[in-house]
Design brief:
This protein is α/β, with parallel strands linked by helices. It is 20% helix and 36% strand. The protein contains five helices and ten strands, in the order βββαβααβααβββββ. A hairpin with a 4-residue loop joins strand 9 (131-135) and strand 10 (140-142).
Length: 146
Amino acid sequence: MKIAQFPCGFISANCYVINRTGYKSCVVIDPGGPSKRLEQYLNEGHLLPEYIILTHGHGDHTGGIDRLKELYPEIKLIAGKKEAKLLYDRRMSMGQGGIVADINVTDNEELDLCGIHMKIIETPGHTPGCVCFWYEADELLLSGDT
């Protein structure tokens, strides 16, 4: 698996792009804001982001969603089911609000995205619907602010 990290948004929160070697499809995790470096990486690698996955719904992890949806209209947003209210409420999210996930995930759910298998681990505390993504085959845990 390839992992690229990009500081994004107003506090340079970590955003990641992951893709399986040999795949052009990829996943973007926690896009905190628009990023020219991220766009350049995707373009130069001829990568097609199919999913945005969120560890939680604070604005420093969601600020780049609109730009990615503008560039890739078919991209799907994945977030913890228990994070729906926070994502939608501008004040609670400390961001733009009005965000609705295309796919809501829950604890112990497993997904196969772009050739990458992951397990969802709910980790409430930082936010009510905070989740981590466990990639067992790669011994990688993406945890956001958990």
